Amino acid sequence: MSIIDSAKQAAQGLVQGAMTKLVPLAPDSWIPGGVPDPLIARKHGLIGKPVSRLDGALKVRGDAAFAAEHRFADMTYAALAYATIARGRIAAIDTAAAEAAPGVVLVMTHLNAPRMATPPVFGSSPSAVGPADLSILQDDRIHWNGQPIACVLAETQEQADHAASLLRITYGAEPSTTTLAGAKANGIEPGLFMGQPLLNEIGDAEAAFAAAPHKVDRTYRTPRHNHNPIEPHAATLAWVGDELTIHDASQMVTQQAQTMADTFGLATDKVRLTSPYVGGGFGSKGLWDHQVIGAAAAKLARRPVRIALSREGVYRVVGGRTLTEQRVAIGADADGRFQALIHTGLSVMTPQNSMPEPFILGTQAAYAAPNILLKVEVARMNMLANTFMRAPGEAVGTFALESAIDELAVELGIDPVELRLRNEPDKDPTNGLPFSSRHIAQAWRDGAERFGWHARPPRSTRREGEWLVGVGCATGTYPYYRMPGAEARITLTRDGDGVKALVEVAAAEMGMGTSTTTAIVAAERLGLPLDRVEVGYGDSAIPGAIMAGGSQQTAAIGAAVIAAQTALVGDLIKLAGNDSPLAGLSPDEVGCDDGGLGSLADPTRRESYASILGRSQRDSVSATKAGSLPLETMHWSMHSHSALFCEVRVNTVTGETRVSRFLGSFDCGRILNLKTARSQFRGGIIMGLGMALME
């Protein structure tokens, strides 16, 4: 790292530290969301209604083009060959048989690949999304078993796959670390996540735990989890002169285009990446080796390339969730109130990336205790780089925490729901911030009544013939995030007697209904029917950078749409001029309603968008604006919660497990689309059941 880079990071750290201290002290009215939006008082009835996804019909008809369905003229098809050792060098590659195979256009290895920069690794800058601090096909080094080491292009996919199987590779293996015991023996280091230490210390948790009259001290282990989306990763790429077009499956459209530009030494506007549809992502649909290799092969062959990973290829190239080894120790008094809460343990990373599983995140704001110790340490193995996977930290960390709480409930003889309610915090236990809202206690009480929790047997188990029937419960939690960088462009265009709106955001759609919620928010803000709003997204040519990750994209889009709509109102008032009923009003004094602008104080003073555009002799008007900085995340502790209840049957003869009932009671703020929200809740439950029963 250069002296300049070090100075820049130090300066950024000072600014971040100052903001962290000052923003919590600011009045609520200075913070985004601190003052209710005045347009909330003029509801148009769209927010919270069940709306079918706007892209649903396209997908059902097969009209939604995914990354591997785009076509270019004279296209070639790629197949990868993967390393079969964990660490070492390529001693030799015999490509003769592959090059002579039918239909083969090119065999690319580190010996003939174009020279490329190492993709900037995720976290090194706001636009960097490289998977690891490693060059791709630039040398003979092997860093993990499964690393792509050659690419074959052919006229058909079958020809490429066959030719790749004919490659003969000789290795010079070197000592590697592929076991947890070996990783531990090599040394343990502190864990960092998103540049922040994974450590919280309040009081003396170990001493308080030792002195507590009631306690549990357990170790929980979770295995590595691999991403397995319905749509395997793929990209279709073409060079036109010195410009690169990529049709990809990406959760980070703008950032990925920028990282590809950096890798190939291009100006930002020389890379165009589109990703309108993503068939499952959950953190995995980012930049991996295959897109870089596909672009390099297309450049070398001077022909477009489609590179689609096989299911094996996904497992070899795309990172997942690393294994964890967690200790949860809770000390409580006779009433069940926690005196000490300890959640520590080990995660694993590669030598080339910094993405440990941050399993303490869900514990940080979950329960009150005067003494808290939360810590993640890291060991390193020679393996595929880790990456984000749904609910990084929470998915495996809350499993351990909630299991320990259940065990403590048995130790104390206290109902596990009641034990959780007795340890509800009145402010964030680790940073002291007030909660923006917290209704998990209500969720627990409502859910328990609906589930019939209090009618369960004393030990939560009963027998029905061959079946043992038990019930259990757990808290779910996930924080509110809103990343900076989001922009929206709103264009109103005259259409007959009215107008249509085009709302453009550089967002991604993974199946969660992003375009639909964006249309709902925009229609509500503009006072237009939903069918008069079109959404453009999934294209790096659109301003701004919005990542579909951390469950923050909808909040980021909403803030950007609000900002763009506010700017658009200002422009419309200027266009309206002095001959309008709106003359003399400021943007703060008007609202959007029924296809136009109206005075908030006097609804009779209004003019339609079409009228404003017509009188100003304009066919359209457009405004682009970035959302406000996400200062609310420094001012409040913000989380969604769920109270989860489950009834499970286990056959005492066959061991068969059946989940006969499951109820989730959710506390998650304002619902934008009731239909897709319900789908998200159910999908989360199903994913959790799959993890518990099959992973």
UniProtKB/TrEMBL annotation:
<dbReference type="Pfam" id="PF01315">
    <property type="entry name" value="Ald_Xan_dh_C"/>
</dbReference>
<protein>
    <submittedName>
        <fullName>Xanthine dehydrogenase YagR molybdenum-binding subunit</fullName>
    </submittedName>
</protein>
<dbReference type="InterPro" id="IPR046867">
    <property type="entry name" value="AldOxase/xan_DH_MoCoBD2"/>
</dbReference>
<dbReference type="InterPro" id="IPR036856">
    <property type="entry name" value="Ald_Oxase/Xan_DH_a/b_sf"/>
</dbReference>
<dbReference type="GO" id="GO:0005506">
    <property type="term" value="F:iron ion binding"/>
</dbReference>
<dbReference type="InterPro" id="IPR008274">
    <property type="entry name" value="AldOxase/xan_DH_MoCoBD1"/>
</dbReference>
<dbReference type="Pfam" id="PF20256">
    <property type="entry name" value="MoCoBD_2"/>
</dbReference>
<dbReference type="InterPro" id="IPR016208">
    <property type="entry name" value="Ald_Oxase/xanthine_DH-like"/>
</dbReference>
<keyword id="KW-0500">Molybdenum</keyword>
<dbReference type="InterPro" id="IPR037165">
    <property type="entry name" value="AldOxase/xan_DH_Mopterin-bd_sf"/>
</dbReference>
<dbReference type="InterPro" id="IPR000674">
    <property type="entry name" value="Ald_Oxase/Xan_DH_a/b"/>
</dbReference>
<feature type="domain" description="Aldehyde oxidase/xanthine dehydrogenase a/b hammerhead">
    <location>
        <begin position="61"/>
        <end position="175"/>
    </location>
</feature>
<keyword id="KW-0560">Oxidoreductase</keyword>
<dbReference type="GO" id="GO:0016491">
    <property type="term" value="F:oxidoreductase activity"/>
</dbReference>
<dbReference type="Pfam" id="PF02738">
    <property type="entry name" value="MoCoBD_1"/>
</dbReference>
